[in-house]
Structures are given as structure tokens and as C-alpha cells.
# Entry
Amino acid sequence: MTENAGNSLKRGLAILEVFSEDRLEWTPEELMEKLGYSRPTLYRYLKTLREAGLLSSSANAGFTLGPKVVEMDFLLRKSDALILNGQKHLKNLTERYACTALLVRRYGDRILCVASERSVANPRSSYPRGRPMPLGRGAIARSLMAFLPRRQLVPMIERHMEDLRSIGLGNTVEEVHESLRRVKRAGYAVAFGEVTPGVVGIAAPVYDAGRSPVASVCVTIAGHLVNGNDIDEISAHVRQAGREISEALSLERENGKMA
Amino acid sequence: MTENAGNSLKRGLAILEVFSEDRLEWTPEELMEKLGYSRPTLYRYLKTLREAGLLSSSANAGFTLGPKVVEMDFLLRKSDALILNGQKHLKNLTERYACTALLVRRYGDRILCVASERSVANPRSSYPRGRPMPLGRGAIARSLMAFLPRRQLVPMIERHMEDLRSIGLGNTVEEVHESLRRVKRAGYAVAFGEVTPGVVGIAAPVYDAGRSPVASVCVTIAGHLVNGNDIDEISAHVRQAGREISEALSLERENGKMA
DNA sequence: ACATAAATCCCTAAAAATGAGATTATTGTT
DNA sequence: AACAATAATCTCATTTTTAGGGATTTATGT
# Structure
């Protein structure tokens, strides 16, 4: 209940953590219970968070996430070079194949869809912006991990060993590492129904300017629509998209630095 | 520079304020300068904010807003009853008229577009999700203020008197109040080029369950496309949309309470 | 492997956070 | 419009954390 003892910034931010898909509205009373804060303390935090716009309280309906959240996401959408440069490649891919095409950004150990296009109605496997994705499984995850420098990769494998083992990537860090080396040699990752049953994922890394990939471009397509040849063809296009987006990003960064 | 003295939650959250359309990337050095925090302090805050996911630091490129922002916005989009119930009405309106249709939510003194549809390419007046709007001007603002209970309305008028006077709504609180009473009687607000030159806005309030409107539904349309009759017709539809969304929201809230 | 820059650690005075209980606003109701 | 019930804020002494100079460690690039 109380694990953020002694750090009012953390304690305040912990309030944001309780908002979830299942529970987007909390009364002060419920928050006191959940977080174990005293009444005045909680109200102080709530006041500050509301003033910052991160929370919003509508009369009679408790607290919810606030307008600042929407504004900040707007800022990100509006100026994220990855999205700005990648969107047209997603369109390309969805026009060519009956698929969903995604851009997934990596933030440390989290990966998150930031943009998606689809040419086929498939609510089941749809990944809209903002939906978190698992780092231990799926083509996207692997297409990111495989291209990380060893220094970052090994600890990450260790942190996600359980998931990685369960999908058969290897039983030891070394074995997983070897599997990922194969992905790296191929230049892309494929996964059969690892995230959504019956759906094949094909993903390639996107670079910014450094040596670690910052994102992944991915096509997901119904398994019964593709055979080995199709996958080869699609993966070539996905890799190409990854390369082109990477190039645009690194150009942009160069120019940015000059300005 | 330092005005948040003595409140580490506020001081930490102040970091989020420096991110703007013009500046979405800050190095620790720049933040120290801008906020006047000492090095260890700043790093402590940054660490906490990053752990919370509100910030993200990519090697060599300073800090940016983080994945938590995107996830929280996803939560809001996904479960905002206003959006879920209102989207189809926006579609209706854009299908009928060559316009942009918006849903704008009120958060205290801030109003923010949360959803929009358009049937005409008009980047100039386009208001995508997340773009803040002025509270002192435009049909949307007025359609919200006019229906507020006096207790909330009068202080709000006072806070925005300057803007309200400049668009000719009145020179005193009482005069503005009277103008807004007329809006209330009409049931909707119209504005000619107040927000975007040459664009007419027609807006009606949306209620939740209480007596204050929580949002506004609005149609913006090129001024040269409409005459008085058109405006009468459109406003009838906008009001109707507002009423129907309100009804859906209040029903939903009733049911929610029962569950 | 090494040099350079970046991030964290150590520490104690000084300042802020905390929470019990009282107080004051805010709502909803008759 | 006055009132009751609830919600939010205030007061204040005590405890706890914070802040920041300077040293140190850890990353990062060559």
C-alpha cells in the first residue's frame, strides 16, 4: 500500500498510477484507502495535480486524468519525427497488403504503439496509439532487442527471461542471445501468433542517429493469408520502410544540430 | 525563474511545463538554467519523472515527454463517454455540411478539443484533439459559459473580462451576463470569425448529469458558404446533437451508479 | 583500453511534509 | 432562502525529507 514513503514527488505521481482501463474515476475517499495517504496530504497532492492539469475533478464524479494529458499527447503527436516521417510508409504497407502496419517506439524496457494504419477491419489485433505491448514476445519486441548493443541487450534478456523462454527463444541467456543474433542477421523478425493468435507479425528496426534502434515498423497480417514467399516479400518491404524512416530521422537530427 | 519554492511535487511537475510546441527536447543543463534547480536536485526530479514514464531520455538527445503520456491519453480516448457517444454525431454533421465538427470539453477555465471530424480540407481552422482553445472568444466558449449557473459564471466572466469586452460582448460583467442570457435563450451560440478569420462557429452545450455543461459540440464552416437560413438550419442540428449526446451521457451515468 | 562528459553519492543545515483535529466552503434539500 | 450534510481546507507542532556544494562513480565516445 505504502511503498513510496518519503518522497513527495513520487508519492504525488503515484496517484497517476491508479488510473487504469478498469478504473478511470476515483473519489478522494477511495484514493486515501488505496494509497494510504492521510486526508490533508491527499488533498494537497490532488490540488497540485489538478493545478498542473494532470487530474480533473468533475463535481460529483471524483477525479480523472486531466487536460494536460491530452495536451501533452498532442505535443508528442504533432512533433514526433518518427510519426511524421513514418506515417506515409505505414500507408504504403497497408495499401499493398491486407494488414495493419504499426510504428512502435521503445522507451527503455517499455514498447508502445505510437501510430498505426490498417487496410483491413480487425479490431481483435488492432493496436491503436497508446496501447502498451509486451517486450518479451512478438516480432516487434524481437526486432528491437536483436539490434541492441550487447551492453543493453544482456541485462534486458535477463529481465525478461521468463517470457522469452516461454515462446521458445532459448532456455539460457546465451541461447536467447544466439536466437537474436539470427534475427539480426536476417534484418527483421517474424512471429507466428505470439501476441495475437492467428496473426503473423513482421518487424524491422528503425534507427535515429545512434546505434540502438529507437522504434520498430511492423506489419501484422492474418496467418491464413500468407505463405513463406509472401513473408519474404513483405519482410523486404518492411525492412525497406525501416531503412527509409531511419534515414529520414538521422538526416533530420543532423540538420537540427546544425540549426 | 523559481516561483515554486517549497513544494517538491510542484517543483517536479514544473518540469513538464517547459515542454512546448517550440521546444520538445531539453538537456539537464538547459533545465537547470531554465528552472534554477541545482544539479543533484534536478537529476533527482528527472529520475523520478522518468521512472513514472512522464519523461523519456534518449541517449544524446536530452529529455522529452514520455510514454506514460501516450498511455494516459489512450486511457482517456478509450473510455471517454463523451467521445464514445459523440463521434457518430460529429460524423452526421460533417456528412451533412462541408464543415469541421468538434467536441470540446471544459476543464474549469480551460477548454480543449477532444474529438473532431471534418468533411472539408481546412488545415487553417482545424482543431485536432489536444489543441487548447481560448475561453474568452468563439462560439464554443460562449455556448459553455452561457449555460453555467450564475455562481460559476460571474467569477469566470471577471477572469476573462478583457477578452469578452474585446469581442464586443459587453463592457461590464452585467452586460456580458445579459449577452450570455440571450445565448442561453437561443440554446446555442454563433460566432463570426472570432477564432479563425472567415470561419463561422455554431455551438451547443452538452450535459453530463449535473446542471453545468461539461462540453460543447460545434460546427465550424467557411463564412462564405452560409447565410442566415443556413445558420438556423445548422444550429438546429447542432443543438439536437448536443441534446442527444447529453441524454446518452446522463443515461450512462445513471446505469454506472446502479452497477 | 582510455579520456571526457554525464549522472549519482555523501552529508548536514535548513526547510518542507505530515496528519490529528478544528474550521470553513460547498452542495443538495426541505 | 435558510439549513443540514458532506467535502475540502486550515492550523500547527513534530518529524522527516529536501537541497545543494563538492567529491565520486558511471557511462560514453574515440
